[in-house]
Amino acid sequence: MVITMKKLNDFFEKHFIPFAVKLNNIKGLIAIRDAFIQIFPLTFVGSIAVCINCVVFNSTGFIGQLLISRYFISYSKWNN
Known about the structure:
mainly alpha, single chain, 3 helices, 80 residues, 90% helix
């Protein structure tokens, strides 16, 4: 197993590292890479906010059903 991993590592170093270095030196790709790196935290925070919104504040979500059922029952008793 170790011999196989060494061969695989040598193959990657021989064939892919020079190609990756060439790609890394292209200014347009550097700008795109840096833009993705800078926007990723905002994307991550936004996706967490959407997940919380779907679970907590959605009326069909688990917690939303608990809150709506308690509020609706108490509201209907208070209204009658």
